[in-house]
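A protein record pairs a chain with a discrete description of its three-dimensional fold. The following entry can be read in just this way:
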Amino acid sequence: MGAVNGTLAILAGEGRLPVVLAARARAGGRRVLAIQVRGASPQLAEAADVYVRTPLGEVGRLLALLQGEGVTEVLLAGRFSRAAVHGDLAGGDAAARRLLETVRDRGDQPFLSAVASALGRWGIRVGEQLAYVGDLLAPPGVLAGPPPAPEEAADVQVAVRVARHLADLEVGQTVVVKGGAVLAVEAAEGTDEAIRRGGSMAPGAVVAKVGRTQQDPRFDVPTVGPDTVATLAAVRARVLALEAHRTILLDPAEVRHAAQASGITVVAVDAPPLRPRDAEAGRS
């Protein structure tokens, strides 16, 4: 991807990914406007040139901010509760309600694609997270802890297969399995709650977090970090399975240390790399 001029905006939910993106973009010479639409983050405020908190339902104000700051590119990053986002838009300004009315499929990727299309009509491009954190994609193999035992390896296969179907159906990305039985699947509650729910049923469970077969690299790329490992440790889960080349691994050294300390194996199963949308457009 070539050099991009103008201010980069990060439309931020909760979690650490927006902070990492802001820090890396600034280190690369970009001016960063962080718009926090979910939660609050002193770390993001410190990492960005400009930090603003505003509800997602105030679409008119968001657009004015983007245009007033000379934004040419937006990244969508962080955790967004599906129910909260739809609630914010339904109770938001006229522009927010119009946006919600245009979205027939309320799954995460179709919904975010509609947001990207709306921004495009306003002359603002939605960029790809991997342009800034592509080096954080998990490599294949065992990343922490001992190799999975045979029964755990079998559960990894089940969990990854079910999670991929789950993601393709726009339900969620995370599945918890023990002894070949699915204990929990992620829906609107998010990854951590799904892990807590499933892991509380049986210690030693396997957790898989997997993206869609046709994953859009602009948003909702599966992301794990030390907090994910801490959630597994709290319910005494044994294995965290990811897809190599398709999962962002935040703070890899800290993830390895936390996993080792908790007796958790982190394994990345081999998978086809995510394709940049620019490359896809060039083939179409």
